[in-house]
Structure formats: C-alpha cells, structure tokens
Amino acid sequence: MPSSSCLRRIQSGLIALALSCVAVPALAQADRCPKLVAEAPARIIPAAFRLPAAPQEALFRLAAGASDEVTLNYIGHSTFLIETAGGVTVATDYNDYVHPDVVPRVATMNRAHSTHYSLNPDPGIEYVLKGWSDTPGQPARYDLDVGDLWVGNLATNTRDWEGGTTRNGNSIFVFRAADLCIAHLGHLHHTLTEDDIAALGRIDVVLAPVDGSYTLDVDGMVEVLRSLESPLVIPMHYFNETTLNAFLNRLGAREFVVERNASSTLSVSRESLPGKPTVIVLPQR
C-alpha cells in the first residue's frame, strides 16, 4: 500500500494535470483586473469643478497616493478621451468623424461602422489598436503597457449584414490605470458568458452602448451590466434623449442610482467609486 507521502504526491500531480487542461481566456492571464470589491463610497468629482489644491495639500495627496485618478472626457458617439495621472491619453473607437482635438498616444478601434474606426488614423498616434484581427475568425490580442496605463482586450462576436455571425469581429478594450479597471464595451452585439465575465475580472467603470438596436437591445445591455457588477456605468452610443431614456427607464431604480453630469468630463479615482451601482450620464460635446 502506498505511503501517505506518496499518495499526497500523486494527488498533487493529478490536480496539476487537471488545471493544465482548463482553458483560461487570454485577458485573464495578465491578471491585471482581479475581482475586488470597491471600498468606502465617496463622491465622483467632475473635473470641470475641481478647485486647484494648495502646494502643501497637493504634496500631501501625492504622498498619500490620493492624486491617482483617471479623467474621462466624452467626445461623443462611442469616443472617449481617457487621460491617466501620468499623462497617457487614449481615444476609444477612434474615427474620422468624432474624435478629440488632441492627438492621443493610444487609439482603439472597432469596425462595426465607419464611426468606430479610421482607415487613416493620425500618424502622430503612437499605438493604433484594432479590435479585430486581419486573419478572419481569429481574435485580436493585446497586452500593452504604456507609461502608467495597461491595455488588454476581450474579443467579441458581431452580426453581419446578412444576419449571420462574424466570430471575434470586435473587442471589449480594458484599460487599467490608478488601480482602476475601465471597460469600453465597443459595439457589443451579444450578452456575455460566464467565461467572458471571468476573463474581464473586476471592472470598476463600464462605458456602455445603450442605443438598444444597432448594438444590444436594452434588456440585453441591462443583463450585461448586472453581470459585470461594476460600481460606475457611463452610457454612450445613444443618438438622442429618447434612446437614452429608454435605457435609463429600464434600469431598476433600486439597483442603480442615475445621475446627470453638467460637464462632459469626469475624474474618477478608486476612493471616489460609489458604494451602490451608479449610472452617470455625460453630455456629448
């Protein structure tokens, strides 16, 4: 009969073998956004209303790590200009029609329509990240560090014009900076699986398309937001107040707090994340 130590070695070997057979989504292996629970709730301060700190206060905040925040500027449609505390800028769904006034260091694109990508991006952009692969059916894969920013992605399927499915046609891009994980859902056409949720990990801020037709229907988008369990949701890809309100009215009042921001710019830090899931509407410029 094998000894107890021998049995333990056999058991450990079997466990290791089993784990090696488990498929782990690509985004999860970087482990950049582990599942965590946001701590003490605090208010989110619109950047336009921030008062300049005194030199002593600024020095204290820097020493305490409280100066780490990310600024989100809603340019319009699906495009945000994201800026990290270290000055790295990202334009999401960069295109030739709706884009920021500055040349971003990083641009992400999806290809559902021409308002989500550019065939001729500004040559001054250092990193142009397409949400699709040039090899049909294969996923685009990113694991990129730029200054104090990390960018990863999760490939998603899209509908084609004939009603079929294009596998891995677009991407959810995930940005991590200042210990915040921000997911831009792109032109999402389907709800997320348990594997998708596990791959995305902890998402603190969701930039969600809420048009209810070209992307997911309203019920589908609400299901996605519930599954992500993120403390902050910012709607995008809404064409008018009617489509926006159809989404807002579908949200459970007991589940989500809804706020409207006077400015298109919002500064967010880990300390400022709300304790209850909150939707903040940023006006389009």
Automatic annotation (TrEMBL):
GO terms for molecular function: hydrolase activity. InterPro entries: RibonucZ/Hydroxyglut_hydro. It comes from the Bacteria. The keyword Disulfide bond does not apply. Keywords: Hydrolase, Signal. Pfam families: Lactamase_B_3. Residues 1-28 form the signal peptide. PANTHER family: UPF0173 METAL-DEPENDENT HYDROLASE YTKL. This is Zn-dependent hydrolase.
